[in-house]
Write a structure and sequence with these properties.
The complex is a heterotrimer of chains A (about 280), B (about 375) and C (about 270). With about 280 residues, chain A is mainly alpha-helical. Chain A is about 70% helix and about 0% strand. Chain A is globular, with a radius of gyration of 23 Å. Helix content of chain B is about 45%, strand content about 15%. Chain B is globular and about 55 Å long. The chains are: A mainly alpha (about 280), B alpha/beta (about 375), C mainly alpha (about 270). The interface between A and C is large, with 99 and 101 residues.
Amino acid sequence: MSTPGGRRGHGGPRYPAWLALPALGWYAAFFLAPLGFVAAYSFAELSGFVGVDFAWNLENYRYLWDPVYRDIFVRTLGLASFGTAATLLAGFPFAYWLARYSRRRTLLLLLVIVPFWTSFLIRAYAWLIILDPSFPLFRALDVDLLYTTTAIYIGVVYNYLPLMVLPLYAALERIDWSLVEAAQDLGDGPLRAFRRVTLPLALPGVVAGSLLVFIPLTGEYLIPAILGGNKTAYTGTLIAQEFSEAHDWPLGSAIAMVVIGSMTVVLVAFSRIAARGEVANG
Amino acid sequence: MNEHEIEDVPGGRRTDRKGFVAGAVATVAAIGLGRFGAVDALAASEADAGELFYYNWADYVNPKTYPAFTKATGIKVKKDYYVSNEALLAKLKGGARGYDLIVPTGYMVSILSQEKLLQPIQWSKLPAVKANINPKFRHLPFDRNDRFSVAKDWGTTGYMYRTDLVKERPKTWREFVNLTKGKYSGKVTVLDGIPEVIGSMLVMLGYSYNTDNASQLDKAKQELIALKPHLRAITSTEYKQMLIAGKIVMALGWNGDGLAVAAKKPAAYVIPREGGEFWVDSYAIPVGAKNPDAAHKWINYVYGARNNAVETAYTYYGSPVRPALLRGVLAKSILGNPAIFPSATVLAKLQANQITARGTALRNRIWTEFKNA
Amino acid sequence: MGRRLLAAHAVLVYAFLYAPVAVVVAYAFNGGRQTLNWEGFSTKWFSAALRDDSITSALRNSLLIAAGNAAVACLLGTLLALSLPGMWRSLRVPIDALVTMTLVTPEIVFGIAALVFFTEIGLTLGLKTILVAHVVFNASVVALVVRARFVGLGHDFEEASYDLGAGPLSTFRQVTLPRLAPAILAGGLLAFTFSFDDFYTSFFVSGAGTTTLPLYVFSSLRFGVSPIVNATAAMVLALTIGAIVLAYIVLRRSGGRAGGVFPGVR
C-alpha cells in the first residue's frame, strides 16, 4: 500500500499520509477551532461592560459598514500595498545580487536574519531615537519625522524587508544563470533577458514574498502605535482596541473576520497568479 | 555518482553530525518538554516562600518602598504594569489569574466586582488601615461596604505645561484646546485613556463627565476630531519624559505626573475652571490571587503614616491617611500643595467616573473616530 | 557596471537593516539615563540588567517557550513534510492551503482567536498556552523548510537501503533522517527565533506573570527608550550571534558540505 520504495512520489519514497495527523490535529485544535470561535463571536453582541450575548445576528457587520470603518480598512490596504511595493522594490535587487553575484551566501543570509535576534520592539524604539529631531541624522536635514505617517512607513519597510528578501532569494537562487547569459548571447539586451528569462522564473518568489508581507500588514498594530505616536487607526489598531480596551469582543471578532475574508481573497488571487506563472514556465 | 557523494553514505564521517543533531534535538526536547513540571513547581514554591505579585500603574510606588517592605516582612515583590483601567479589565476578563494585588480606579472597582473578579478584603488583617484611614475614604460610592477595596490615593485629571516654554497662563480647557490648535500645534499630547480625554471635552462644553446623551457626546467628538491633527502623540506613560525633555510643552494628564515634572523643570499643573475628573484609586485583590495574605500585608504596610508619607512624596498623589497623622511626617510643601490636596471648593467642581455601559460603548466608538481623524 | 550598482544597493540595505541595531548596542554603553544625551561610556547597564529579576525571569520564560516550541514544531513539521509529497493531490492541496493560512494570517487575528479559544474552554493562560499557540505557525515553518529539502533529495540511497534488506523504519533512521537533519535544524532554528521574538500572540495569551522578553520590553519601553533595555538587547544579540557561530563551526567541522544548513545554499 504505502510502503516506501514502492510507488515513487514526486520526490523521495512515499511516506504514509497518516504521518500528517499530529500536525493536522494541532492545527484543528489550536488554529481552526479558535478561528471558529471568532466567527461565532462575530455574530454576538456586547452586553453590559464585558458580557457577550449570542444574538446570532449581523449587527456587528452592519455596524462596520460605516464610513469611519471603511476609511480605516482603506487606509490599512494602502499601508499593506505600500509595504509590499516598497519591500519588493528594495528587496528584489538585493535578493538578485545575493543569488547571482555574492559569495559566502550563508553568512550574508544569516546577516539578514540576525537583526531579528534583537527584539523587534527594541529595534522599533531604536527608530524613535534615529528619527528624533535632535539625533544627528535628521537634525542635519531639519525634518521632523517622528510620529508621522512617514515614520510608520519607514518602520514597516524595515520590519518586513527580510520577509520579502528570503522567498525572493530562494526563488532566484534556483535560476540557472547560464540561461540568462545564453539569451544575451542570442541578442537580447540585459533588460530584455531579465524580463523574458529571469522575471518569470522569479515569479513564485515574488508571489510568496508579497503574500508574506501584504497579509500580515493588514493586521499591523505595533508599528503605528510606537512610531506613529499611537494616534493613527488601522485595522490592527481597531482589533487591539476592541480586545484590550473597549472589551467589545463581538465587534473585534467581526473586524477580525473581515480581515480573514480579505486575506482569503488575496490568497486566492495570488495563487491564480502563481498558477499562471507555473503554466507559462512549462 | 562522483567521489564526493559516496562520502555521504551514513556510517562514515556522518556519524558525528548525526550524533550531534540527535543530541541537540534530544537536549532541546528534554529542556522544552521535561522542564514544565519543574517550572510549575518552581512557580508554586515561590508563592509559598512569600511573593507578592503586584499588578499596578507604572511609576506608582516609591522604588524605595519595595526593598523596605521586603525587609520588614520577608516578602519579595514581583511587578507588572498596565496603562489604563480598561486594559486591566481586559486582562483579568481575558483569563489572567495569579495577580495578588491590583489598583483599579473607583469606577473600575464596581465593574470588577460586578464581574465577580474580586475577592473580599479581610479588614481584620488591616489594623494600620483601620487606625489611620481618613473616614472620608471609607464607604465610597463605588464600594459602600468596603468589601472589595481600600483607598490607595486620589487625584485629578487636568493638564500640565512647561511654564518656561509656554508664556501664556491657561486656566481653562478651552484655552488648552485653543493653544494646541494654534501656537503649540504638534507639541501637545493627551492621555491614552478613553473616559479621561472624552470627559475633558464634555466638561469643557458644560456637560457632565458621565453623560450618556448622544448629541452631547457628538459635540465632544467634534472637538476631539478638530484637535487631533495638532497632537504629537496619545500616551499615558511617555508624556512625563517628553515634557521634561521639552519635546512637548503641554499634556493632558494626571496631577501627580504634573508635579513630578515640576520637580525637574519649571512647570505647572492646572485643574481647569470648567471642571474635570476626580478619582480615587483603590487596592483590590483579584480572584485567583496566589498570595492574598501578602497583599493584605502590603496594604497594611503602606498605611503606616511614615510609609505613606514616603509614597506621597514620590507620587505626588493625595494620601487617604488622616491629615493629622501626616502633619508630622510629610513636608509642608507637599501637604499644603493645592495641586495635591485641592481645597473643598475646587473638589466640588470635579466629578468621579460613573459612566454606564451604554456611555462606555458610545465613547469607544468616538475613540475610534478620534484615532481615524 | 550593473553589478557594482547592485552591490552598492546591497550595502545600503545592510546599513538600513543594522542602523537600529547599531544604535541599540551603542546606547547600551551610554552612562547616562536619558538615552538621547550621551554621558560617557559605561557598562553599568549590563550588570543592572543581569541583576534585574524581571529581566532574567522574562528571558528564562522566552528561552523555555522557544525551546519547547521548537522541539514540538520540529516533530510535527517534519512528520507533516514527510507525508505531503506522497499524498493524493485531493488531500495535499487543502492541507497546503491550511499550512499557508497558518503562516500568513495576521498575527493579531491569530492572537485574539487564541485568547477567545482558551478563555472559552477555560484553560488558564500561561507558559503552556503561549507555547501551544507558537507551535501552530512554527510547525508550518519547519514543514516548509524540511519539505523543500526533502523534495530536492534523490531517493537513490533509500532504494539502495531497501535493496540491502533494511526495513522502512531503519532506512528512515539511518539514511533519510541524517540527510534531512540540516533542514530540520534550520527549521528548528527558525521556529526558535520566531517564538523568541514573538509579540502579538504572546501578548494576548500570556495571562498573569508569564512575561516573555518582548512583553517585558514592550511594557518597559512605554516610558521611552531605556538604557537597561538596550543593554539586555545587546546581550541577547551577542549570545545568539555566538550560538550561531558555534553551530556553524560545529556543522562545518562535522563533515562535508556544511552549506546544507540552508536548503539550496551552496
